[in-house]
Amino acid sequence: MENSEQLSAAALIEQSRTVVVKVGSSLLFDRERARPRIAWLHALAEDLAALREAGKRVVVVTSGAMAFGWQRLGLTRSDIVTERQAAAAAGQTLLMGAWDAALGPHDIVAAQLLLSAGDIEAERRGANARAALETLLAQGAVPVINENDSVATEELRFGDNDRLSASVAQLAGADLLILLSDVEGLFAADPSTDPDAEHLPWLPAITPEIEAMAGVSRSGLGTGGMATKIAAARFAAENACATIIASGQAAHPIERLKGGARATVVGAKAAGE
Q1: How far is CA 166 from CA 3, 56, 142, 158, in A?
Q2: d(Cα 90, Cα 122) in Å, to the nearest integer?
Q3: pLDDT for 72-88, tens place per residue?
Q4: What is the b/e burial string over 190-218, where b = at least 16 CB atoms within 10 angstroms of the residue's CB?
């Protein structure tokens, strides 16, 4: 889809063939109530099943291992790298269990893949990751991918699952990346401090001016803010993949996008452009 062609989120979803859906920590875990949002996850699983029934290949990139792990280990959220690694290790099993329980009733196999930047950027390891992803998709599974936070260090500090999702989209040959978070896309100013901030529904390209508008995460759970989403959208666009940045707070976020819910759409460059 060329970046000069303005399409709505609903139209992009309808036309897509391979969809990568990134889910942020604040959507999966209710920090105030200190518990997972299980009902919300099951509603999202229904949306993913509907995409599958429409003939689309679906890949999930999920955050949330540490959010689950802090509670499991009885630890307070910390910036100490070893404690963050421990929380990720303890929480990953709970996170995958939640995804398996949500997708299982739809006869969908949730297949865990833990990746790091090196797994994608190194030529041989990247080829192996691509082959594993393609095999899982060919077998009808939904790959559920997270960064390998239990051994990563720099990735933990920067929390770049947004960028990971864009790299996964490239690996999968996806034509649509959906970034679900706690915001309805990009605004010209911070909507939490400026209620009249202009919402930007369509971005034909990521410019330096757009990058300057990017804010930071307010949830306190995830570590990626709007800046990482814009960077992810730029990378995806360079690989002929459009991006939708949308709020996932309400149940059935993808069905809501199909119905016209507010979001920011970033156009993709045409192949070879």
Answers
A1: 17, 18, 17, 15
A2: 28
A3: 999 999 989 899 999 99
A4: ebeeeeeeeebeebbebeeebeebebebe
Indicate which CATH number applies to the domain containing 33: 3.40.1160.10
**Distance separating alpha carbons of residues 203 and 181, to the nearest angstrom:** 18
Q: Strands 35-36, 29-30: parallel, antiparallel or unpaired by DSSP?
A: antiparallel
Q: Is 184 helix (H, G, I), strand (E, B) or coil?
A: coil
Which residues are paired to 59 by β-bridges?
Answer: 20
Q: How many domains does the chain have?
A: 1
Measured N-to-C along each axis, helices 81-103 and 65-73 cross at an angle, to the nearest 10 degrees, of 110
Q: Cα–Cα distance between 154 and 176 in angstroms, integer?
A: 27
Q: Is residue 111 part of a domain?
A: yes
Cβ within 8 Å of residue 210, ≥6 positions away: 186, 200, 203, 230
Residue type, 49: A
Domain contains 271:
no
Nearest CA-CA partner of 219 in 73, 30, 74, 82: 30
Can you give the residue range of the structural domain that contains 191? Answer: 9-266
What does the pLDDT look like over 128-180, one tens digit per residue?
999 999 999 999 999 999 988 787 655 444 356 899 999 999 999 999 999 99
Does residue 243 sit in helix, strand or coil? strand
Query: Phi and psi for 13 in degrees, rounded to 5?
Result: -65, -40
Give the β-pairing of 57-62 and 18-23.
parallel
